[in-house]
Design goal:
The chain is an alpha/beta fold and 518 residues long. It is 41% helix and 12% strand. The protein has 16 helices and twelve strands. It has a seven-stranded mixed sheet with strand order 2-8-7-6-5-3-4, with helices on both faces. The structure holds pyridoxal-5'-phosphate (PLP). Pyridoxal-5'-phosphate binds next to helix 7. GO terms for molecular function: aromatic-L-amino-acid decarboxylase activity; pyridoxal phosphate binding.
């Protein structure tokens, strides 16, 4: 008879365990009616450890190198379990918690990661314990209605119509992919309606184009590739000095498509570009989409926080979109992941529908709400619960206050950087990002300027005192603050700017004194 457990003695074979029964030791880990005390104890241990971490974190990062962190894994053998959650948590402290990057720290100013609100963390704990899957009603019941109500609520805030709908997704990347999938299939159907020869899909795809600003998120290009159009199907539209899509540029590209017999399958307008937070002129873009019969997708992954802010007007025009991406995990202070794709006409979601006999047979479609009919995922997390508890506990207004605070702060920071001769800033933010760079002495080459800024960011990260991001503008190296933490003060921003200036000045003097080798 085969031995139970691992040869190294994970669980010693139990001679009293009859076939078809797992050992009591293994069964003790299942969450069920008999283990609720263990569940409470173990999860509380984890919560206490994280709480302790949060209470003692003094810097957003430790700056530990890849080699340093990797070295901690040397004595971990996944085939030799610790049999004890406390010991596993102690080990995790070393492997992860100690050197993790903490987004709640006021000097974490790097990417679009927000500090999260406690009601959402509560939601996360509930949803993973109950573990509903949002594909079908018979796996989710009330969870499906909660998600549907949140989709409706969001669509109403945007003003989408006439028959809005949507579904939660894993993130903006997936939301954009699904929106463009719907746009592609609508475009193919449109071409067939107007072509008597009924061309095959493979004949239509090479003619489809996606128009979006040169500052759009890369997931637009990636989606085009995944949807069988290729990266080249994405036509970049120029932007103005504030990094907003130029309507004249869009009109010119749409006309060019028309002239060349190409089909503008979708225009993607960004409401909050990842680098600059710039919002494309939604009304003008919507006018052009109507004129040329193009699907309008608004990527509000970042800007969706405006829906609950006193700056709601900045999203005016989004209600005319065919589809909208919102990332609650960017500007609604939700834990990853929490995102949704919304559409103005629910009939378009049919392009994501597949009826599987075992799951959602067609004959049940009218009787039971099955969210899988609207999603490109099957098994799907009940992420909506986090936003639900957030709205039920603190309310949309409080979320908006938090977002407005970071946008206000970004404007203050813009003035500070604009007035500081050591730095140069690219645009005045509409949302909460700031792209700027340290300026070395006037006779410095552009390459030296790039190196100095890169090195300043690197040494700052290694110090762990603050974390900032980087990007390029017209091929040159810049630094970026993404403010999403309402606890970040102007004092924090001044302090981080001082650190950057110090590191950059040091790098500059080192670069200048280094012998030139060509
Ligand atoms: C972050 C972002 C995305 C991608 O969203 P993920 O949730 O990271 O997948 C798409 N568009 C914009 C404008 C973004 O800022």
């Amino acid at each position: 008879m085969a031995l139970l457990g691992h040869p190294d003695g994970d669980y010693p074979p139990d001679p009293h365990t009859p076939p078809g029964t797992a050992s009591p030791a293994a069964r003790a880990h299942l969450l069920n009616d008999r283990t609720t005390r263990t569940y409470q104890r173990v999860v509380t241990e984890g919560v206490e450890r994280v709480a302790h971490r949060f209470a003692s974190v003094t810097h957003p990062a430790t700056g530990a190198s890849v080699a340093e962190v990797a070295a901690e894994f040397a004595d971990v053998d996944l085939d030799r379990p610790l049999h004890d959650s406390r010991r596993a948590l102690e080990e995790l402290e070393r492997l992860y918690l100690r050197d993790a990057v903490y987004f709640h720290h006021p000097r974490y100013l790097a990417h679009l990661n927000c500090p999260i609100v406690i009601p959402a963390v509560l939601g996360e704990a509930v949803l993973s314990a109950v573990n509903s899957s949002l594909d079908t009603w018979d796996q989710s019941t009330g969870a499906t209605l909660i998600e549907r109500q949140l989709v409706e609520w969001t669509a109403r805030r945007i003003g989408l119509g006439p028959n809005p709908d949507g579904v939660f997704t894993s993130g903006g990347t997936q939301s954009n992919l699904q929106a463009l999938l719907l746009a592609r299939d609508e475009a193919c159907a449109g071409v067939r309606r107007h072509t008597p020869s009924l061309p095959r899909t493979s004949e239509i795809l090479p003619r489809l184009r996606v128009l979006t600003s040169e500052c759009a998120h890369f997931s637009v290009a990636k989606s085009a590739a995944l949807l069988g159009l290729g990266y080249d199907a994405v036509v970049p539209v120029p932007t103005d000095a504030d990094k907003r899509m130029l309507p004249e540029g869009l009109a010119a590209e749409l006309e060019r498509c028309h002239r060349d017999g190409l089909v503008p399958m979708a225009v993607v307008a960004t409401a909050g570009t990842t680098d600059f937070g710039s919002i494309d002129p939604l009304e003008e873009v919507a006018d052009l989409c109507r004129r040329f019969g193009a699907w309008l997708h608004v990527d509000a992954a970042y800007g969706c926080g405006l829906l609950v802010s006193r700056r709601r007007h900045l999203l005016d025009g989004a209600e005319r979109a065919d589809s909208v991406t919102v990332d609650f995990h960017k500007s609604f202070f939700q834990p990853v992941s929490s995102s949704a794709v919304l559409v103005g006409d629910r009939a378009t979601l049919r392009h994501a529908t597949y009826h599987a006999d075992y799951l959602n047979p067609e004959d049940t479609a009218d009787r039971v709400p099955n969210q899988v009919d609207k999603s490109i995922q099957t098994t799907r997390r009940f992420d909506a619960l986090k936003l639900w508890l957030t709205l039920r506990v603190m309310g949309a207004g409080a979320v908006g206050e938090l977002f407005d605070a970071v946008v206000d702060r970004a404007d203050e920071a813009w003035t500070m950087i604009e007035d500081d001769p050591r730095f140069e800033i690219v645009t005045r933010p509409q949302l909460s990002t700031l792209v700027f760079r340290y300026l070395p002495r006037a006779d410095a080459t552009p390459e030296l300027c790039d190196r100095v800024n890169r090195r300043a960011r690197q040494t700052l990260f290694e110090s762990g005192l603050a974390v900032v991001a980087a990007t390029t503008v017209a091929g040159r190296q810049y630094l970026k603050f993404t403010l999403l933490n309402p606890e970040t003060s102007t004092h924090d921003i001044t302090a981080v700017l001082e650190l950057i200036a110090e590191h950059a000045a040091l790098a500059e003097s080192e670069e200048l004194s280094r012998p030139r080798v060509s």
